[in-house]
Design a protein that fits this description.
The protein is mostly beta strands and 199 residues long. It is 6% helix and 37% strand. The protein has helices spanning 9-12, 191-198; strands at 20-26, 36-39, 42-50, 55-68, 78-83, 86-92, 103-108, 117-125, 141-144, 149-156. The strands form 2 sheets. Strands 1, 2, 4, 7, 9 and 10 form a 6-stranded antiparallel sheet that branches. Strands 3-8-5-6 form a 4-stranded antiparallel sheet, with no helix packed on it. A hairpin with a 2-residue loop joins strand 5 (78-83) and strand 6. The relative contact order is 0.27.
């Protein structure tokens, strides 16, 4: 396999220092609510996601949950993981079928591949026969679960103190995650005050 060991869990659990960030999200949070289903001898699916404008990623990794058809030939079949046009991991079909259980793998995402707007692609190269196979056969499939996680850490850039940046940093239309905007009141607010804060 061409995968690279991901950072240890002890590293990922450390509290971020001032001016840095550490996040973990899954494909569901990135806007993929359902299992990614790949069918055929060469099929792919792409997820589009953006990073906050003030984040510079220095480390990134992915913990994948995926399934292969038990009919696939291990020597001829694999799952490629591609970020912005560059393949950074190739996951082979196991020699022993997983009997329906999810296969797990940790891979490192090269931080220099991550930009403001990203395309994450999963591509199945699948074969169930050496010759004379039907490329539309139901035996050719792989699934990627939406609970597949992506962890990132890096530096936070300061935003200029400029009203022209609004609605940043409170809302970024390119992000899939809903914004969380805290509102602080000096005293218990009235119903009208709560309504105004919501607006």
């Amino acid at each position: 396999t061409s995968t690279t060991p991901a950072p240890s869990s002890s590293d990922s659990g450390a509290a971020p220092a001032a001016g840095t960030f550490r996040t973990e999200t899954n494909l569901f949070d990135l806007g993929t609510p359902n299992t990614i289903n790949l069918h055929g001898t060469d099929s792919y699916d792409t997820i589009y996601f953006a990073l906050p404008q003030n984040q510079v990623v220095k480390q990134a990794s992915m913990h994948l949950y995926y399934h292969f058809s038990p009919s696939l030939i291990p020597a001829l079949s694999h799952l490629k993981v591609i970020l912005n046009g560059t393949t950074f991991a190739t996951l082979p079909v196991p020699q022993t079928p997983s009997n329906g259980a999810a296969i797990e793998a940790d891979v490192v995402i090269p931080a220099d591949l991550l930009v403001r707007n990203n395309q994450l692609t999963f591509e199945l190269i699948g074969h169930y026969a050496q010759t004379c196979e039907d490329p539309t056969s139901s035996a050719l499939w792989a699934h990627v679960d939406p609970n597949t996680r992506i962890a990132m850490a890096g530096d936070l850039l300061p935003l200029a103190d400029d009203l022209k940046l609004l609605p940043l940093p409170f809302f970024d239309a390119q992000l899939a995650q809903p914004p969380v905007v805290p509102v602080v009141f000096g005293s218990a607010p009235s119903l009208k005050g709560l309504e105004a804060a919501g607006v």
